[in-house]
Specification:
About 20% of the residues lie in helices and about 40% in strands. It is of the alpha+beta class. The chain has 2 domains: about 5-40, no CATH class; about 45-180, Nucleoside Triphosphate Pyrophosphohydrolase (Alpha-Beta Complex), CATH 3.90.79. Strand 2 (about 20-25) and strand 3 form a beta hairpin.
Length: about 180
């Protein structure tokens, strides 16, 4: 198999606050042909499975522009430049919910979509979370409603189609693996 490497520098075709789209020339690893690909470049992301002292999972309801509806999710967001992923997880938890807990524990990492994305999404578990203040939303379009549910009910929200965000479902999977029970 031929190794594939970008040929030359990426050319930015579009950028906004959350991501940029680069056009990059690659070599096809199977044929050796050169082709152009569009790749989404973003800061890395973090998701947080936050549990209360009682073992419930902290969830949020938040309006999402892509689906044009209020989605049930877990706290998470972009990791800031120079910020360690664990610090980003704790910051996002506090910003979106006003909750804080034990130190973040990395339980999984994925690439959101290797076909077009160049960044990672880290999932952290933060246990013993309690509300220490109000949420500190980072913009006028961010507003979350916070609630809790036992892990078994969270799985039910997935199977019922209430939770549809693929990265949230992946984080729940990491939590089930970490807890040693795929059926939480």
């Amino acid at each position: 198999m031929i190794e594939t490497w970008p040929r030359g520098e990426p050319e930015e075709r579009f950028s906004c606050r959350v991501f940029a789209v680069d056009e990059i020339s690659y070599t096809n690893p199977y044929t050796g042909d050169t082709f152009q690909a569009n790749v989404i470049r973003s800061k890395d992301w973090t998701n947080v499975i936050a549990t209360t002292p009682e073992g419930d999972i902290l969830l949020i309801r938040q309006f999402r522009f892509g689906s044009n509806r209020i989605e049930v999710e877990i706290p998470g967001g972009l990791i800031e430049d120079g910020e360690p992923p664990a610090a980003g997880a704790a910051r996002e938890l506090k910003e979106e919910t006003g909750f804080e807990g034990d130190g973040p524990v990395l339980i999984g990492t994925v690439n959101p979509n290797p076909a077009i994305h160049k960044h990672a999404c880290y999932t952290f578990l933060i246990q013993n979370c309690v509300q220490t203040g109000p949420p500190e939303f980072d913009g006028p379009n961010e507003k979350c409603e916070v609630f809790t549910a036992p892990p078994s009910e969270v799985l039910g929200l997935v199977t019922q189609g209430t939770i549809t965000h693929s990265l949230v479902i992946t984080a729940i999977f990491w939590f089930c693996l970490h807890s040693g029970n795929l059926f939480a």
